[in-house]
Amino acid sequence: MAGNRRNFLKQTGLGILGLPFIGDSFYHRLSYADSSVLPESGRTKSGKAKSVIQIWMWGGPSHLDTFDPKPGAGRDYCGTWDKPIATNVPGIEISQSLPMLAGCADLYAIVRGMTHGSFQHETASYLMQTGHQPGDGLVYPCLGAVVSKIKGHDAGYDLPVPPYVVLTTSQGRFSESGFLGTKYKPFVTGGDPNQSPFLVSGYVVEGMTEERQEHRRSLLNSLDIFGKVHHENQWVGEVGTARSNAYRLLQGDAVKIFNLDTEPEKIREEYGRNWFGQSCLTARRLVQKGVPYITINYRGWDTHKRHFETLGRRQAEWDRGLSTLLKELGHLGLLETTIVWWGGEFGRTPKIGWDSPWFGGRGHFGRCFNVVLAGGGFQGGRVVGVTDKTGENIVSRPVYPQDLLGSIYQMLGIHPDSPMPNEKGIHVPMMPPASDMGRLTEIMG
Amino acid sequence: MMKRIVQFGLLVLLLAHGTCPFFLRGEDGNPFVSDNPFQIKNRIDEILVESLRRKNMEPAPLCRDEIFVRRVYLDVIGTLPTAQEVLAFLEDTGTDKRSRLINTLLERDEFADYWAMKWSDLLRVKAEFPVNLWPNGAVTYYRWIHQSIRSNKPYNQFVRELLTTDGSNFREGASNFYRAVTARDPETLAETVAQTFLGYQTASWPEAKQKELTVFFSRIGYKETAQWKEEIVFWTHQPLDSQDVVFPDGTKGTVLPDQDPRQVFTDWLVSPDNSAFHRAIANRIWYWLFGYGLVDPDHIRDDQPPVHPELLDYLSRELAEAGYDLKHLSRLILNSAAYQQSSLSRKDTGTEVVWFASYPIRRLEAEVLQDALSQVFNVPVSYQSEVPEPFTNIPARYRTISLPDTSVTNTFLETFGRTTRDTGLETDRNNNITESQQLFLLNSTEVNTWIQKFVANRRINGQVFNGQRSSDRRQLLDDIWLTILSRRPTQAELNLVAEEFRDRTGNQEQTLQDLVWALLNSREFLCKH
Predict the structure, then answer these.
(1) What is the pLDDT of residues B453-491, one digit of tens each?
(2) Would you state the pLDDT for residue B242?
């Protein structure tokens, strides 16, 4: 592992020459930086997807209680949820707790053979979001940061909303932007889309008028003496630029995009009047505007204890939100160009812990679990991979994180084997090579 | 380019004739323009002036007191001075007051907090991915670092303990050094040691030389215990394949079969004759105080001479002669006129700062900014770890600079680019300016709520501003400026405030809020200068 990286570094002759901010130019002016040339971003022509909506099931959702039910496994595996329901695609059954999603299985593919073998949140999250194995001395960026790098500002992206948006709290666990740096971190909205107004950090402040905003800006201009005295200073100039850009965002259409009150009440109800439903609706609005990557960071699936009580309370919420999102994207003609990716860092132990302190809980399970892919060229109404009768082992078609993420990249028109673009002169490919079974060609259009 | 020259010429002309706009005049208390000449205070200054003279440059004037007090608080204790602290310093009439303040700050608790944070960045104190120290290990490691800094442990001893301590990650803090890596193969351990203590990037070395270094770290073992996530780091006692070893500087040595190769390496590393060792740390301390190194602290190499070679030679000799007393070195630098220069260079051609002919302007670090906001607005911040193994809750009375572990974080710190502690490189900290950061400061509910409370708490007899006595009004403005910018308002600023209240009599509360908002968003607040 480490040896591989060493070889990459050797090719550049320098290694990770991460230079500090201002330092970049500071050291450049003294000409002791390397002059590594940025590799090409490696776009392919085949992919037609323009955006990704990632529904991140933070904590790891149970595969048995979502898209891979095992009714024959008995009470120790199913609890009372042993009656899966047929979907609108003959032969595909899913958990009885997801009736609305059962009605639109033609829109999505279920990948039941996901695996990476890690049972720890942090490593598993890293694997599922970056596609890379840890331990080679580099921390890779997650998919959203890479998309933000390739399709964002560096590529002329000019919308009033940043190219990588996370609803509504940051993911934590690891640094999303990895070695790409802060510039490619997501914009985290804060606030609650189910509240009115949806207080998007930096965009919407309760009671703030446009007039007052303008007045503040001119006041700042008169009072920022320091900036004027130091107007030749490079740092001072950079803050000025960032400030102007922020104002451009703030005064553009973004505020309207985040204003869900302009949606018909009927639509809002269809998504569900709760945080998740309205996050899905927000994601749809962002996709409509052309934002390339949106993550809905959906917490609360680390259900070690009283698993069925929690799911009993919460499944209906995302059954409604997700199915409405898929259907609406379909009606709007956006599903063809939008990948919806549902899944967490791993699944949960098929065998239920009935005793204290779990009281019917499920632990971490990285050996096999499921994800769902829809749109952007992925074929709906399909199942990839089979697990055994208890959902503890893969019987056929394992899919590794690099296969899943490589497939998503490909559908986005980004070649997964091309070099990872970066400013630090690190020469590594976007994705590790696909596993023996390869990327998800069986459902890739 | 032409435009720049014209602007600059204009500025000089205006300054000369005293007809410049209010914000450029020195006489009404503009604190950024200083008339204090550069005075040689110690050997650092002699070397700097001589070195600059050869480049046809002059150092900047000494900064004014109100600039110095803010700067030295931020650089030494990572904490904004309170209004009272600023006033106490400004009112002190002693000629040695800067030295006395430096001495006081070096003994403050926050000094240990802030410098432990810097060291924890380098030593990768992080419970979670990718170094996976686990919460208990991270805290034990951090405590050891903090205690070492607090007691001003000599640097050679500090490094010796890091490199040779065996034992449990939960009991022996320093034993976590060899665990705080992304991979535990001898190559990675060797790379990490070279990068941390010598500033070398061994990846650019010939393979044979890399192997010579790797040998020293090839006999380290790890074993689990019955306690969850506890781990023992130990010397395997397995003799090296060959007794003959070569150190990175090319000198040869011997590791006997009953010797721990790490001990032999450490003897070489911290030896007073090993100038690479003191140069790396002297440069790092300079980097920490100026924001830039005399050389790139992450990649010291032969083909890249320092900015002022004699200065680095002097600092590193001084450190070795003072028994590796890091505080002594900091004190020396802080007392130099070099450090106390204005951030406005004599001729601003953009290159002065590169040669340390002015004090470099840079953004407050994420943690320092969070604490500064918390102090200014009196809003405590508490932290919880996202990871339930075990849950970590940091009560609000702890400051952000004293967080042991970067796995415990919040959106603010992530947005402002706190160190990830992934690589241990200085550049792991990202002090970039981004639109997201600006959006937060310009227009977020958090900031607005803080400002509302700040203003509401300053009412006197229910009056916001206009209804107050003129002396109270002046005191209020002094307090606001001192709290946020660590200086009093200038006459021009006072006039501007008066104008605001004259023009917007409707809602005084909002007027004052808007003024506070503008100060908070000024570049002066956002940076060290």
Answers:
(1) 999 999 888 888 888 888 999 999 999 999 999 999 999
(2) 95
Q: Please provide the size of chain A in residues.
A: 445
B439/A250 CB distance under 8 A: yes
Terminal C-alpha separation, chain A? 34
Contact A262, A19 (CB under 8 A): no
Q: Do B299 and A135 touch (CB under 8 A)?
A: no
- State pTM to two decimals: 0.86
Strands A293-298, A51-57: pairing is parallel
Average pLDDT, integer, range B30-42: 89
Which pLDDT value is given to residue B368?
98
Kindly identify which residue of chain A lies nearest to residue B422, measuring between CA atoms.
A139
Residue B378 DSSP one-character state: T
Asked, as a colleague might, if the bond just before B257 is cis with ω within 30 of 0, I would say no
Predicted confidence band of residue B175 (pLDDT cuts 50, 70, 90): very high
| Helix residue spans in B96-239 (DSSP H) | 97-106, 109-122, 135-150, 155-164, 186-198, 207-214
Inform me whether the pLDDT recorded for B145 exceeds 50.
Answer: yes
The fold of the A37-204+258-443 domain, in CATH, is Alkaline Phosphatase, subunit A (3.40.720)
B426 Cβ under 8 Å from any chain A Cβ: yes
* B445 reaches A (C-beta below 8 A): yes
* Spatial distance between the Cα atoms of A144 and A408, rounded to a whole number of angstroms: 11
Length of chain B: 529
Between B422 and B518, residue with greater pLDDT: B518
> What is the pLDDT, as a whole number, of residue A308?
96
> Is the pLDDT assigned to residue B299 strictly greater than 50?
yes
In chain A, which residues have their Cβ closer than 8 Å to the Cβ of B410? 170
Minimal CA–CA distance to A344: which of A62, A132, A42, A5? A62
pLDDT digits (tens, 9 = 90+) for A395-433: 999 999 999 999 999 999 999 999 999 887 888 999 999
Residue ranges per structural domain of chain A? 37-204+258-443
The average confidence (pLDDT) of chain B is 91
Q: List own/partner pairs for B372-377 with CB under 8 A and 24 or more apart.
A: B372/B79, B372/B80, B372/B525, B373/B450, B374/B399, B374/B400, B375/B79, B375/B80, B375/B82, B376/B80, B376/B454, B376/B483, B376/B484, B376/B520, B377/B450, B377/B451, B377/B453, B377/B454
Chain A touched by B254 (CB under 8 Å): no
Alpha-carbon distance B424 to B447, whole Å?
32
- Cβ-Cβ pairs closer than 8 A, A with B, add up to 268
Residue with tokens 């790409």: A180
CA distance A239 to A242: 5
Cβ separation A205–B448 shorter than 8 A = yes
